[in-house]
Design goal:
The complex is a heterodimer. By secondary structure, chain A is mainly beta. Chain A has no helices and 11 strands. In chain A, strands 2, 4, 5, 9, 10 and 11 form a 6-stranded mixed beta sheet that branches. In chain A, strands 1-3-8-7-6 form a 5-stranded antiparallel beta sheet, with no helix packed on it. Chain A starts with a strand and ends with a strand. By secondary structure, chain B is mainly β. Chain B is 0% helix and 51% strand. Chain B is built from no helices and 11 strands. In chain B, strands 2, 4, 5, 6, 9, 10 and 11 form a 7-stranded mixed beta sheet that branches. In chain B, strands 1-3-8-7 form a 4-stranded antiparallel beta sheet, with no helix packed on it. In chain B, β5 and β6 form a beta hairpin. Chain B is globular, with a radius of gyration of 13 Å. Classes of the chains: A mainly beta, B mainly beta.
Chain lengths: 114, 116
Amino acid sequence: EDQVTQSPEALRLQEGESSSLNCSYTVSGLRGLFWYRQDPGKGPEFLFTLYSAGEEKEKERLKATLTKKESFLHITAPKPEDSATYLCAVHPLGGGTSYGKLTFGQGTILTVHP
Amino acid sequence: GAVVSQHPSRVICKSGTSVKIECRSLDFQATTMFWYRQFPKQSLMLMATSNEGSKATYEQGVEKDKFLINHASLTLSTLTVTSAHPEDSSFYICSASPRTGVEKLFFGSGTQLSVL
């Protein structure tokens, strides 16, 4: 069974204080690992997809990296508007009924204080 | 970019009534759509996979007769919560999978259901 564990559950940062969020996963075969941002009362907003160990992707103050067992979301010099819940999810290999089917972690609630 | 539209965003209903939630892919065809449920401060839990032109596939523990799913076209899936009860109150979110790949799986904006 695919499992995704995110840490920490909650993270409070001062504006400008860089940090990282962790996503540990176990999956029989990985098609892709996804990072989403979710604001309260909204659906998840796509950030990144990573496919293989060693891959990195960046978007503004965010950088996602991937190893065979975990992924990190690095936040550089965060701003208050970066406050949100960050979700990690895995998509298993295989087609058919598993296509598009994500297993999510419980999320990390990030709060950035001015 | 691709967009998934979900409607309504919020609904309040009386216990025993049925509620229908719509999920539309606006600029791509989606042979498969997914319905998730999210409780406060918890992550998304997959409820069912909606396949165009065929029966939905439900996850273990999800009642098929309680949560009716119809995927009648390549751009529309509906979730009907039948005979709703207060314990069905939750945030329901759909996602759509484009034919071309899983590089991005797009989510709707969610529906907050409150059953009185």
